[in-house]
Amino acid sequence: MEHTPPPLFRTGPTPLARLMMFTLLSVTLLIADARFGYLTVLRQVTAVIIYPLQQLAAMPAAVGERISGFFVTHSALRHDNQRLTGQNLELAREAQQARALHKENAHLRGLLDARERVAAPSTAAEILYAARDPFSRKVMIDRGLRAGVAPGRPVIDHIGVLGQITRVYPWLSEVTLITDKGHLVPVLNVRTGLRSVLAGTGDDGRLELRFIPLAADFQAGDQLVTSGIDGTYPPGLPVAEVTNVERNTEYLFANITCKPLAGVNAHAQVLVLGPMPERPGRQEEQPAKAPRGKKKKS
Amino acid sequence: MTPARPMTPQELLLPVKPGFIVFTLVAALLANLLHWSGWMMWLAPDFVALIVLYWCIHEPRKMGFIAAWGLGLLMDIAEGSLFGQHALAYVILAYAGMALHRRVQRFPLVPQMLHVLPLLLFTDVVVLLVRAMAGADFPGYAYFLGSIAGAALWPVLTHLLKLPQRPRPDPDRV
Fold it and tell me: Å from B80 to nearest chain A CA?
């Protein structure tokens, strides 16, 4: 099979030695990444190497989408048009109300001498693909460092909160979805005003509220919006809907499952919100015991 | 010494071009980067792992640890997993491929699959352990489907990858 004679005397280290060497190297990288979060630069350099390949691999999906987009039927378009017109009317009504409310709010805030809340600047982006890592729920979007995206920015779609940016590469960024295990969103129950923390489960359509006392007022169908106390997510964005409340007196806490409102599984356009303008507000809120006081009252 | 049963006749193949190895590795990387969704995401095998294993078994002198490790790092970035996780898996595969290459090559394709499957599953378990140590949950048994699909693809892959090495039929031969 081999046309050249095998190099008998200079084979280098044995395969086992090489295996040990590279295993050690990999484990070092793993620990440096998982425990200490170093390696940002190394990651970015590797990301630049693989970027052209990623673009190439994205082509079949893009072409397929374009082809299927070309063959949209007339009835589908008409149906869409009808739906959008209806939606537009409703939104226009809401926008008018919102304008009035905005004015009223500004007036009241002026009265209260509160800071103006400025609408955060945002960047539109598109979900490129869902990362194939089976252990986490992450997606890649097509805006990165070059577009001014930074870690920690909230990402929303047209319905609600999708997640937040966790890693940024020059042209791409990685969004950890709210369904990722270990991702937390501070939320507020719209109906009752109760604050809590919504945790991802690693399961696509399921979120849970942890450590909610049995007596707390939560019902299926309650809407949860961001409370804004973390300084990451601006307040008032829809996040999830309570689907099931299970109260078992054997446990200390109620078992509350929710479903995310945003299309966490859909290929869609998303919005990366800019940095929260009220940085000083966050420090103001931290020492104040406002949230705790509220909980005691309820 | 006579073997218990006649061995399958070995083909004489042309030497493989290094360019072809690089081409297949890049193609496998592209296949991994394709936007799999839904069930296919679980079912799609790790093509890079398969190709690395293939070349380590068939050309252990031309495919090395460094290539396997580098490819693993690239996959880690693309998948957003822990940095070094795929690198570790591919290095283990490369070693297993090199250690077993004389043995595996002797077998026909179906028993070869039975060698490949445990190797792929073993690397899956290694990755699982690494992630469990980093605090992840077990993602469900569907996690192993990719490796089973990969082993099922092995004969097809072997056939395809050997095509350019087959000598052209001699036109003068009657």
Answer: 6
Please say whether the beta carbons of B79 and B71 come within 8 A: no
Q: Domains plus CATH for chain A? A: 15-71 (no CATH), 121-298 (2.40.10.340)
**Which among A130, A133, A267 has CB closest to B81?**
A133
> Helix crossing, B109-133 with B145-162: angle to 10°?
140
pLDDT in tens, A168-206: 988 889 999 998 888 999 999 989 988 999 999 887 788
How far from A137 is each of A197, A269, B19, B29, B130, CA to CA, in Å?
18, 18, 37, 21, 17
Interface confidence, given as ipTM, is 0.80
With CB atoms and an 8 Å threshold, state whether B135 touches A53: no
Displacement of CA A196 from its chain's centroid (Å): 18
Residue-wise pLDDT for A141-164, tens only, equals 888 888 888 888 999 888 888 999
Query: Are A6 and B84 inside 8 Å of each other by CB?
Result: no
The whole-angstrom distance between B29's CA and the closest CA on chain A is 8
Residue to substitute from A22, A43, A46, A180, interface B, most B β-carbons within 10 A: A22
In a domain, B62, yes or no: yes
Q: Is B62 exposed, middle or buried (0-12, 13-18, 19+ CB in 10 A)?
A: middle
The whole-number pLDDT of residue A213 equals 87
Nearest CB to B95 within list A3, A15, A129: A15
* Amino acid, single-letter form, for residue A47: A
Q: Are strands A223-226 and A138-141 parallel, antiparallel or unpaired?
A: unpaired
Return the structure tokens found at A107.
């007036």
Which residue of A46, A167, A169 is in closest CB contact with B73? A46
Q: Are A2 and B61 in contact (CB under 8 A)?
A: yes
pTM attached to this predicted model? 0.75
Summarised one tens digit per residue, pLDDT across range A87-134 is: 999 899 888 889 888 888 887 877 776 555 556 678 888 888 787 788
Report if residue B63 sits inside a domain. Answer: yes
Please give the Cα distance from B47 to A215 (Å, whole number): 52
Cβ–Cβ contact A34 with B under 8 A:
yes
A200-226: pLDDT as tens digits: 988 778 899 988 888 888 889 999 999
The answer as to whether B173 is a domain residue is no
Q: Which domain range does residue B121 map to?
A: 18-165
How many domains, in total, are found in chain B? 1
Work out the number of other CB atoms within 10 angstroms of the CB of residue A260: 27
